[in-house]
């Protein structure tokens, strides 16, 4: 039996993100947390904060596809300097693949943004050592200022 995912269901996911405290939510579509491939829809709002992180395991690549809205992928050096900014939307660059051990984060640029993330499993919660030590923890008082920087920062050397 095939699985289908309707637009109405993804709009409902966006509605849940708007009303959630973290201003994002997800819908797992893989069978279990032990599945060899993890697939999830993620709905985000512009004021959500996704702390920069990396996946140190050799097999933990991440494939990210924007279905609706806009989200910017940010790639950082080991010391937190912004190296690359990729604007993702259904109108231009729609998908990216991030290799293991790359510091990255996303910043939502449009309300109602929905993406699909695919990565190799099984699910392993992000450990404290996988979060960027130079970025504030989620919920910290510095987050609003840092999030504002993320929204406008340009890679070093870019005008």
Classify the helix fraction into a percent range: 10-25%
Determine the CATH superfamily: Jelly Rolls
Second CATH tier, the architecture: Sandwich
| Tally of helical segments | 2
Low-confidence stretches: none
The biggest beta sheet is recorded as: 5 strands, antiparallel
Distance between the termini: 52 Å
SSE class: alpha+beta
What is the typical, i.e. mean, pLDDT?
93
The total count of strands amounts to: 8
Nearest-angstrom radius of gyration? 15 Å
Name the shape in a single word: globular
List the secondary-structure elements in sequence, H or E.
Answer: HEEEEEEEEH
Q: Give the class-level CATH name.
A: Mainly Beta
* Beta-strand share of residues: 25-35%
Instruction: Give the domain tally.
Output: 1
Biggest sheet strand order reads 1-2-8-3-6
CATH topology: Jelly Rolls
Which helices and strands occur, and which strands form pairs?
Blueprint: H1 7-19, E1 24-28, E2 37-44, E3 62-68, E4 70-76, E5 82-89, E6 95-98, E7 103-108, E8 113-120, H2 143-152
Antiparallel strand pairs: 1-2, 2-8, 3-6, 3-8, 4-5, 4-7
Q: Can you describe this structure?
A:
With 159 residues, this protein is α+β, with helices and mostly antiparallel strands. The chain has a single domain, classed as Jelly Rolls (Sandwich). It is 14% helix and 33% strand. The chain contains 2 helices and 8 strands; from the N terminus they run αββββββββα. It has helices at 7-19, 143-152; strands at 24-28, 37-44, 62-68, 70-76, 82-89, 95-98, 103-108, 113-120. The strands form 2 sheets. It has a 5-stranded antiparallel β-sheet with strand order 1-2-8-3-6. Strand 1 and strand 2 form a beta hairpin. The radius of gyration is 15 Å and the shape is globular. The relative contact order is 0.23. The mean pLDDT is 93.
